[in-house]
Every structure is written in structure tokens, then in C-alpha cells.
Amino acid sequence: MFDNKIDIHPEVARALSEGKPVVALESTIISHGMPYPQNVETAREVENIIRAKGVVPATIAILKGRIKVGLTDEELEYLGHTKGVAKVSRRDMPFIVAMGRDGATTVAATMICADLAGIKIFVTGGIGGVHRNAQETFDISADLTELGQTSVAVICAGAKSILDIGLTLEHLETLGVPVIGYQTEELPAFYTRKSGFNVDYRIDDAKTIAESLHAKWTMGLKGGVVIANPIPEVYQMDFDVITNAIETALREADANGVKGKETTPFLLAKVKELTGGDSLDANIQLVYNNARIGAEIAFEYSKLHG
Question: Domain locations in the chain?
Fold first, then answer.
């Protein structure tokens, strides 16, 4: 059975068996999203924020071919400084497992692992989506397909602003994925609170969001939900500054022939360089904010589902 490839941390397993709230966390942000040691420091702080809300964090990764749902502090450190960790989405999972390799899970892969473990709430920075010029490249993140079929709620700061946000929303609509704005009617665009695009539903409290998730899944409506939580106003970046940085990064990616799964890490690194590190600071703060709200939603959901 495939279950023998999954290690659920004892604290996580206990919480799940007792119906207590658990929040899943991805690991691509650790291996591919931030430099060491900020990546490990951020991952630890995110877990601390979730624990402070009375919720158990479960950071997910693949280590030496084993799916880990909940990492030890030593495993977090290992993941943060080890080179050559694969970026793992749905298509990659069986091969990384079979070959006994290390892998950092994307939104899609984390959703799969969370679902296997029975975790319904997942916190990340921003979801992937339809890349700009996708009409030529067909570059569309597997995150969207996963949201269409895997019943896990994803708390994020909207879609990454390097994407075509309008087309991303159109694709989510086609897949039947609802987009909730937490205390906002406008979809946030990762580094900024505004994108110019509306969400499907604005909901202002964690309890109502939890009730909506419970209603969806008890009705047998499979698939995920995007819960878009804007970056705190004090930490958001100037719209023109970030837009110009993204446009420059996109041109450089095109000139260097960067494609596929390397696109997002390249663009985020280039934007960080162009903004003098301000984008990394914003990234860290929005993840912390998502952890707070995600933990509150998980706590409320556990009351309904526990």
C-alpha cells in the first residue's frame, strides 16, 4: 500500500485522530522561494504563529523518497540549506518517491499530500496560475487543476503578481473553484492589495468561511477553494514599483529562454533583486498574515468537522 511511503508526524497524527485543527504548509517556499537562513527562520515563525492560535502546523515535503506530513526542526533545517532539492508538483511525485530523492512540494503537491493525510486547510504565499503570454506558451500552473479536483482550502495572498491574473480567475471559474476574498471584494495580487479583479464572494470572518467549506464538501462538491487574504497595508509594495520590476523580470526571462517550472523561481529572484530585497520582506509578511487567518479558519472548521 502507498501508505507506507507517508510519515505523519506523531503530533499531527494525534491532532487528526482527535479532530483537532491542523494547517498544512508547503515547502517550495523554503527550498526555492527564499535564501538561507531566512527560509528556515520564516518557516519556523509560520509554525509558531499557527501554534499560538491553538492549531497544529504540518509542513509537508519529500525527504529521501518519503512523504513527510509535519517536519521536525532538524528536517526543516536540512530542507533549508540542502542543495539540489527537487521542486515537486503532481507529475513529479511518483518519481521523487521511487528514486528516494528530496523534494519540496508546490501548492499542487502539498494539496495532494494534505488530502492523503486528511488535512483540509492549507496556508501558502500565493497560488500559481496562468502565466502571461500563455496563449503562446500554454504555461498554466498545475496548482489550478489541483484546485479543481482536490478538496483542500488554500489560504493565500491571491495569485502571484507575475501572472496573468484575469486569465487565472477565468480558468478557476471554468474549473468550478470559488475564490473568497477575506475582508475584501478585490483579489489581492501578492505584493499588493489590489489587482483590478473582483473575487466571487467577500466573507469577513473565519467562522463563515469554515461553514462555507463544510457546506461545499458535505454536499459532495469536490475540489478546492481559494481564500484570498490581502497583505497587510503597512507591508504592501508600491503598485508602480512592483509592476515595473515584474515587467523587467519578464523581459529577462524571455531573453534567457527561462520556461516551465523554472519560471516562477527566476522571476521572484529577479524581482527581489530589482526591488532591493523589499519584495522578499513583503513575501515574508504576507505568509505570516496568511498563517494567522488560516489557523483561525482551521480552528473554526474543526468545530464543524471534529
Answer: 2-305
Angstrom distances, CA of residue 91 to CA of 154, 185, 264: 20, 34, 17
Tell me if 13 sits within 8 A of 68, measured CB to CB: no
Rounded distance between C-alpha atoms, residue 206 and residue 288, angstroms: 16
Pairing of β 56-63 and β 22-25: parallel
Measured distance CA(147)–CA(89) in Å, rounded? 13
Q: How far apart are CA 249 and CA 62, in angstroms?
A: 30
The second-level CATH assignment, the architecture, of 2-305 is 3-Layer(aba) Sandwich (3.40)
User: Residues 260-273: pLDDT tens digits?
Assistant: 777 777 887 888 88
Residues 181-207, mean pLDDT to the nearest whole number: 96
- Which residue numbers are catalytic? 26, 160
Specify the pTM.
0.93
